[in-house]
Amino acid sequence: xxxxxxxxxxxxxxxxxxxxxxxxxxxxxxxxxxxxxxxxxxxxxxxxxxxxxxxxxxxxxxxxxxxxxxxxxxxxxxxxxxxxxxxxxxxxxxxxxxxxx
Length: 101
Description:
Elements: E1 10-15, E2 18-25, H1 30-41, E3 46-57, H2 59-74, E4 78-82, H3 86-94
Parallel strand pairs: 2-3, 3-4
Antiparallel strand pairs: 1-2
Helix pairs in contact: 1-2
């Protein structure tokens, strides 16, 4: 049976100006999550990324949030996050980037 890490996944869907992210945000899913969410960001001026469906995350998840902010800035978009998991809030506080998210 595969380990839980091998079964890690992340899904992203967009409805209107909200992108919902679900699953795991970690080192195994970061590249795909970055690509998928960045593609979903196209064509909107103001976006919200809803992280209510995130079941597990680590510092790679925090790096994704910061990178999505960078993508939005390059595209001249406004981006906000909602339902940020406690683990990501704690990591962002330790890393002193909590004001960004």
